[in-house]
Design brief:
Chain lengths: 226, 199
């Protein structure tokens, strides 16, 4: 994918601005804090930080449709991942299986309330809420409605994002299963593969649809409306 | 026309919009979130969370993480004990993953946050070469991975409860989860924009 470096502004000591809205054309790299000026880029390309190479923003003319399709798909796979067994084992003539909700429910049953609650939040509650809010948000943007609501949704999303840990859980499943090799026969369930797809979608969206791109899109939509 | 200095531009931590620093009461012009920048603000909160996290990390290593009952025989293993057992039985990748997630990441995160928090108040002259923003960003990205062992314990405990063999979580699981939780809070309460002060 083609990308272009941006104009490097750090040498400018003082600058003159028409008004505060002119700040919309400035962007500070979230990794190294270098100040850049935003320039229009071609559809499907990205702009990177001149100092550290971090992606600053992307332009996708069909962001609403792509975002809506991706978050709906992710939500469906999330439902499958939680409803069916992730893994089934045979050990000493016994058969056992687990689903994602069972992992934190069994912690509750054994009196580990804090760990259980934390697992429930980072594995179930927040991922579910994040994708439900994303679907709602993209729907609002598609219908060009809800200027205030979309703002609250975006703020809520940025608070929840660091507390979603399904990718880490996926690695943990593999670690747990490797520990069981030799003691038990292991069969992967349908929910495991659904979880893999969900995590891949989540990683893809985290990488390609930044919240700041949605903020930019939202501003553009509601500015046009005025 | 407004004239602004490049140093007076700050980034909203919530929506990333660029704002002009007006001193104490900055509110983001796009999302309305408060943006703090002054050193006498808010480091106390981050310190409190961080110290709680470090304290919780001690029992997390002393108490058992996993309690296995096999044919009436009960075995308890701590985090370090578990890593040693995995290493000795030849599961090097697993031992390495758990060592990274449960020992290396938490300790690195404590050290980096302590360093950043001290540095904000007492800037040391010669450390300008270290990009502190990159350092902070790293702790944010790598931090949650320390949850691996807690998840592994949760999975094993949910999966293995037969009448001959049973695995349950140990006290350390709670201590460890508390430690991770408070480190994440400490990192979030730490105001990145403070770093810029002593460039
Ligand atoms: Zn950068
Ligand atoms: Zn903002």
């Amino acid at each position: 994918m083609a990308f272009r470096y941006l104009i490097y502004l750090v040498t400018i000591i003082a600058m003159k601005l028409e008004n505060e809205d002119a700040l919309d054309h400035l962007i500070i790299c979230d990794q190294c804090r270098t100040l850049h000026e935003e320039i229009p880029i071609e559809d499907g390309t990205k702009a990177c930080c001149i100092k550290c190479g971090n992606v600053l923003y992307r332009y996708d003319s069909r962001l609403t449709d792509h975002g809506l399709a991706l978050s709906l798909t992710a939500l469906i796979f999330f439902a499958v991942a939680n409803f069916f067994p992730i893994v089934q084992i045979e050990m000493l003539g016994n058969e056992q299986f687990i689903t994602i909700p069972m992992t934190f429910l069994s912690l509750f049953e054994n009196g580990f309330y804090f760990v259980g609650l934390m697992c429930a939040v980072v594995l179930f509650l927040f991922p579910l809420t994040i994708f439900a809010l994303l679907v709602l948000l993209f729907l609002l943007l598609k219908l060009k409605k809800g200027e205030e609501l979309s703002r609250s949704l975006l703020i809520g999303l940025s608070f929840m994002k660091p507390w979603s840990m399904n990718d880490i859980f996926l690695i943990s499943i593999l670690v747990a299963l490797v520990k069981l090799i030799g003691y038990a026969q292991i069969h992967m369930g349908i929910a495991f593969w659904a979880l893999v797809v969900f995590v891949l979608l989540d990683i893809y969206m985290t990488k390609h649809i930044h919240l700041k791109d949605i903020w930019m899109l939202r501003e553009q939509i509601f500015m046009e409306k005025e | 026309m407004i004239e602004v200095d490049e140093k007076d531009l700050i980034r909203c931590p919530v929506c990333e919009a660029v704002n002009i620093d007006r001193g104490r009461d900055n509110r983001c012009r796009r999302c309305g979130s408060p943006i703090y920048r002054y050193t006498h603000f808010k480091t106390e909160k981050s310190w409190a969370y961080l110290i709680t996290a470090i304290i919780a990390y001690v029992p997390a290593n002393l108490y058992p993480m996993l309690v296995t009952t096999q044919f009436g025989k009960t075995e308890e293993s701590t985090i370090v004990g578990g890593i040693i057992v995995m290493w000795e039985s030849g599961s090097y990748p697993i031992a390495a993953v758990i060592f990274f997630a449960s020992i290396l990441v938490p300790i690195m995160k404590f050290l980096i946050l302590v360093y950043l928090l001290i540095n904000v108040k007492y800037p040391m002259g010669k450390d300008k070469k270290i990009n502190k923003h990159k350092l902070y960003y790293m702790t944010e990205v790598v931090g949650p991975w320390s949850m691996i062992d807690v998840f592994v314990v949760a999975i094993l405990a949910a999966l293995i409860h037969m009448h001959n063999v049973e695995i349950i979580a140990g006290t350390a699981a709670t201590a460890f989860a508390l430690s991770v939780f408070f480190t994440l809070l400490a990192a979030q309460a730490f105001d990145e924009s403070l770093i810029k002060e002593n460039h």
